[in-house]
Amino acid sequence: MKNKRETYLQSVLKQGYSRRDFMKFATYMAAYMGLETSVVGQVARQLENTPRIPVIWEHYQECTCCSESFIRSDHPIVSDIILDKISLDYTLTLMAASGHQAEAAKHATMEKYHGEYILCVEGSVPLGDDGNYCCIAGRTAIDHLKEAAEGAAVIIAWGSCASNGCVQAAYPNPTEAVPIHKIIKNKPIVRVPGCPPIGEVMAGVIVHYVTFGTLPELDRLNRPKAFYAKRIHDSCYRRPYYDAGLFAESFDDENAKKGYCLYKVGCRGPMTYNSCGTIKWNNGVSFPIQSGHGCIGCSEDNFWDNGPFYERISSLNGFGIEASADQVGKATAAALGVGVTAHAIAANVAKRNELKNSIAEGTRNEKQVRED
Q1: CA angle at 363 for the pair 288 and 23, rounded to the nearest 5°
Q2: Cα separation, 151 vs 52, whole angstroms
Q3: Which pLDDT tens digit goes with each residue over 188-205?
Q4: Which of 14, 85, 29 lies closest to 54, judged by CA?
Q5: Which of 283, 244, 271 is nearest to 260 (CA)?
Q6: 3-state DSSP call for residue 274?
Q7: CA gap 89, 129 in Å, rounded
Q8: Which of 16, 84, 76, 85 is nearest to 372 (CA)?
Q9: pTM
Q10: Most buried residue, 5, 60, 344, 352, by most Cβ within 10 Å?
């Protein structure tokens, strides 16, 4: 029976997409995973010949923003097909069945594909009061997680709730919420933090596993390096303003209107590792800093307890030229004077033009997606 499962290509064609659309999708995902163009053929062949891998998607203490992000990916095959083509056998949010039928579908998958299915987990797990703060079908989340994890090939912790506990685990953590890796110790777990993570990042992790049979390369926190290797600060278009010591002092001052760096009003970009500044959101149109709001560091551990969101970090150690906003400004003025500042401003004029072009390109892409 297992060999009768549809392949990924068969599922795509069944849904009305062409082989051309399929190849575009393979190229698109390879690019997001940071792979060379020579690997696109391998991605396509695997998706063409591999039977769909069953997926069980559990929901515990969370707000469902990870699922919402996933189904709103800007690529049509991600948003319209991938949920079907990865064979989503169980998810309380998206499946048609409910109650006993839903639980029966999950247990059938766990039994039939023991050791083969992907377990995706959205939400933290409460340990307090013997786990009774989160119960599904009369059983605690702890029981559900341990049962589903036992037969999983790999586990993907979606979002900051499953990856680090998020707001539920913030002080004083009344439910004693913990992330998935604090409970499951004997399975490979990839953490995909963010509140929520970017939809293309989520799709990329799954497609990598389907293509290569392994999880992508991970960092010391088990996050995929392709998406979490760089700080948001490193790819931020406002970075030249930071280097020049030009900062917004409040969200409504003239400096904010000029697009100066948001570090002094609390931006956590210098300490946050994520792809927001490169992949962006909503068809690549924008991300929080581009929209005028500082990064709150939602993909980092304990981000709810890392101080108020609208107060700047008092110091940044280990960033070379950056120590604090005031020091950067003073050093710039004292050492290099007006010339450096003028250079930084000129650089930002170019950055603004680049931003305008990026927004225009995003608008064109969005229009094209609608027309297709």
Answers
A1: 100
A2: 17
A3: 999 999 999 998 888 888
A4: 85
A5: 244
A6: coil
A7: 30
A8: 76
A9: 0.78
A10: 60
Reduced 3-state DSSP string for 184-240: CCCCCEEEECCCCCCHHHHHHHHHHHHHHCCCCCECCCCCEHHHHCCEHHHHCCCHH
Q: What is the pLDDT of residues 51-93, one digit of tens each?
A: 878 888 899 999 988 888 887 776 656 655 555 545 455 566 6
Which structure tokens are listed for 309? 């969101």
Q: What Å distances lie between residue 97 and 90, 103, 105, 171, CA to CA? A: 9, 9, 9, 37
Q: Comparing C-alpha atoms, which of 179, 182, 208 is closest to residue 193?
A: 179
Are the C-beta atoms of residues 231 and 320 closer than 8 Å to each other? no
- Residue 288 token pair: 């929080």
Q: Which two tokens stand for residue 320?
A: 């070379």
Residue type, position 313, single letter: I
Amino acid at site 40: V
The tokens describing 361, both together, are 């390109």
- Number of helices (H), then strands (E), in the chain: 16, 9
Torsion region of 200: left, alpha or beta (phi above 0 gives left; psi -120 to 50 gives alpha): alpha
| Nearest CA-CA partner of 309 in 266, 273, 261 | 266
What is the DSSP code string of 113-167? TTTT-EEEEESBEE-GGGGTTSEETTEEHHHHHHHHHHT-SEEEEEHHHHHH-GG
